[in-house]
Fold this sequence. Notes:
The chain is mainly beta. It has 1 helix and 24 strands. The protein is elongated, with a radius of gyration of 21 Å.
Amino acid sequence: MRIKSFGISLAVIAVISLGFAGCGESGSNDSTPSSDLGSGTVVESTASNDIYTKAQNVKFNNEVFSITGTGNSSSDVEDWYTFTAPESGIYICGIKYPNGTDFVLNAYHSGTSEVGGSDGSIYTYSDEIKDAGYSEITWIDMPDGNYTITTGSKIYLQMKANSTGGNNADYTIDCFTPTKYADTNQTGIVTEDNKLINSYQISAHQITLDSSNNVIIHGTGNSTEDKLDYYKFTTPLGGDYNITLTHNSSADFDVTLLNPDGSDKGGWSNGATSPEHWTFTALSNAEYFLKVDAYSTGGNDANYTIEITKQ
């Protein structure tokens, strides 16, 4: 992996600003219009989508699309896809490829500049690379990037087979709109709803304390494929709050309370002890994040419950 760590607890997230000229495989200069693969779950329809002018078009269905394709580091190095942004904001793509191979997903806008990629050269954030079964995660248009995706923006995705041993290798690209990961607000009793989407602070599951300033969170973690869960909440009233964590007796979860800038406000790590209790002092109308780390679950799914209550 090509990683520059900036200490932010995200998987492999990148923003890059590079020239678009000359992208595509050597000798590919055909400007044939892109084909339309349809919406939702689609399959790469041709091996000739090796330059952005031949990018195959895909559309979101219920805020998600999934592409299945094949690459070869010797004979089918680049596959290009394109989509039109249905809304403004940051888009998330998770990619899967076989063990022993290496693919990279880059994103470009309007045929001019790159805006995201898992081997970015300017802004790259690293933590657990595998989460929710994905090999890598790519964020398109991070807030500190040089481009903002707006409704109607045309985005090009370049899936590059860096290493497949000269053999064909299948891959999957799953992309999510900003609405898909942002519109998760629940009040009172909350259930984690997407293992990929809330695996990073920037796409934390939004929760709201009820009228008594309490909330209960039910989630699932896995130390192998769903290690991190993030939740975001606001404390309407200042003062002391209790946090209680319960989980499977054989599992070990760590919980950390974060400030919006990602700095540690406090947490605990008491092995497999359950329940665990903690108290923190909050400001009025302040925003906080809970980071739940499935430190050890034996590679199995383990349930946990977190209660936040106002004293």
